[in-house]
Structure formats: C-alpha cells, structure tokens
Amino acid sequence: MKMTNAANFPATMQVLQRGWLSSNNIVFIGRNQTALVDSGYLTHAPQTLALVEHALQGRPLDLLVNTHLHSDHCGGNTALQRRYACRTVIPAAEADKVRAWDEEALTYASTGQQCERFTFDDTLAPGDMIELGDLHWQVLGAPGHDPHSLILYCPQERILISADALWENGFGVIFPELDGEPGFAETRATLELIETLDIRIVIPGHGAPFTDVPKSLKAAFSRIDYLSADPVRNAQNAIKVLLKFLLLERQRIALTEVLQLMTDIRLFASANRRYLHQPETQLVQWAIDQLVRTGAAMTEGDTLVNRD
C-alpha cells in the first residue's frame, strides 16, 4: 500500500494506493466534511479501517462514496458504516438491487466474490455534482466495465477519479459482454468522453495515479479495438482475471480445488458457453497455465500459489 499526496494533489485529498484485490481509496478532509471514495474488498476491511483511521487523524468519516458496486470497490462499506455511521452514496442505478440485496444482480454471486450487506443513504447519477475536499466534482457516467459505473472529474484541479474505466495500461474486464449484453461500444464511448476532458492527473481504481493521459488513452483505445474485434479475447481475459481474483483472495489453492471453484462461478460458465466452447477441465487448466506463464501465479507441489 502506498500513500500519495504531495504536489500532484490538493492538501485536502490523499490517495491510498492498494493492491489489486482492493481498489484504491481516496480520502478527503474538507472544512466541513470528510469523505472516502471506494472501500476495497471485504477481506481487506480491517486494513481499510486502519488506513482510513490513520489518514483521518482522529476525525470521523462523514461520507462514503462508491464509484461502482463491484466487490473490490465496496467490500469495506459495512465495516466503515459500523465504525463511523457515515452517510453512504452509491450509483442511482444500483439502488433497488442494494435495497433487495440481490447478490446475482450485484455480480457477487456471478463472480464468486464476497461482499457483506450494506445500506445507503443517497445516490449519485450522471450530471450530478458532489463536494469532496472543498472541491466540486462532476459526476459522469462510465459504462463498459460496469454498466452503472461513475467517474468523478474536478475541473478546477483537472483531476479525474476514473475507477476502472481507465487505468494507466488499460481498463477493467468488460463483464457485460460475457452475458451477451453490450459493453464494447459503451467502453469506447466512455474513453471518448474522458478524451474530451482537460485532465492533469488520473486516479485509477487500481494502480498508481498517472499524468500521461494521451498515452493511456491511446493504449486503451487500442485494447478496445483488439477485444471488440474478437469477443473470445475478452472472454479469455475474464477467465484469467476471475482465477487471479480467487488467488488474490486466498493466496494458495489446492490444484484439486481450482476446477470446482471456477465452475461454481456463473460468469465462467456463461463465458465458456457463449464464446469458448471448451471442456471445463481443459479451460481451467488453460487459465492456470496462463497465470503461471505470465508470472502471476506459480505451482508448489499440488498447490497453485499467488504471485504479485
């Protein structure tokens, strides 16, 4: 975990750069309100609490904002609500799902990931404005990786909180396409929207903040061209990401258990049925081999082990 502040950001905000299991967290300390954007994954909740407490330096947390409701961005919500009784704001399009706590619609069941039930007090939608750290942020829609994702842009400071819509070297898996829902065109449209903004620095959902926005956008446009040209590529990437997430969460998995864990994930089955058409055993072995080949995992005897 790295803390980023210094010259790139106003004194009222601090970026807590996390690993890939948990999203980055952004802490704001304004004159009248403290706030946090995104809360990481459930199993990292104790670490999230400690990091936020340290950053707040004895202040309470007043407001929690989620850019989107994937498990790695909101898994610490409940722990923060218990500790601080903070107001929580989520994307408006997700409100009914959270009220009903529909784990399939919220993607937790379909990805095989955990998220403790949380509540919310208000919603944000594209076109809204929100004050964080005494700065005014525009709320923009960023469908693609997640149909209801939001990004936050501060024109005054030319800062973009991009969630998983833009990373320094790409963007998040385009999950809707795995279920036959549109996502490629939406991802491109989101990148085109970001391209119109006057941005000095981007705070991505994962990875370090970056300033060479044209370079990152060029790489992202190239990637969406590559993926949309053959949807099999997006499906294969998703399979690898789903397995890597399991490894990030568990660190070590017996090879004999990997097949069952993966086949229990609905999106694994959906991606295979729609695009890949392989025996499950063969596809899981392919995913293991890919992670090992790229150095993202290793085998130790009969165990698959995470490598960062």
Secondary structure layout:
Blueprint: E1 2-4, E2 13-17, E3 25-29, E4 34-37, H1 45-56, E5 63-65, H2 71-74, H3 77-84, E6 87-91, H4 95-100, H5 108-111, E7 122-124, E8 129-132, E9 135-141, E10 150-154, E11 159-163, H6 184-195, E12 201-204, H7 213-229, H8 231-250, E13 252-254, H9 255-263, H10 266-276, H11 280-293, E14 297-300, E15 303-306
Parallel strand pairs: 4-5, 5-6, 6-7, 11-12
Antiparallel strand pairs: 1-2, 2-3, 3-4, 8-9, 9-10, 10-11, 13-15, 14-15
Helix pairs in contact: 1-3, 6-7, 7-8, 8-10, 8-11, 9-11
Brief summary:
The protein has 308 residues and is an alpha/beta fold.
Give your account of this protein's structure:
With 308 residues, the chain is α/β, with parallel strands linked by helices. It folds into two domains: 2-229, Metallo-beta-lactamase, Chain A (4-Layer Sandwich); 231-306, Arc Repressor Mutant, subunit A. 38% of the residues lie in helices and 21% in strands. The protein has helices at residues 45-56, 71-74, 77-84, 95-100, 108-111, 184-195, 213-229, 231-250, 255-263, 266-276, 280-293, and strands at residues 2-4, 13-17, 25-29, 34-37, 63-65, 87-91, 122-124, 129-132, 135-141, 150-154, 159-163, 201-204, 252-254, 297-300, 303-306. The strands form three sheets. A seven-stranded mixed beta sheet has the order 1-2-3-4-5-6-7, with helices on one face. The longest helix has 20 residues, at 231-250. It is globular, with a radius of gyration of 19 Å.
Order of strands, main sheet, comes to 1-2-3-4-5-6-7
- Tally of helical segments: 11
Helix content: 25-40%
**Major sheet details:** 7 strands, mixed
Low-confidence stretches: none
C-alpha Rg, in Å? 19 Å
Reported by name, the CATH topology of the largest domain is Metallo-beta-lactamase, Chain A
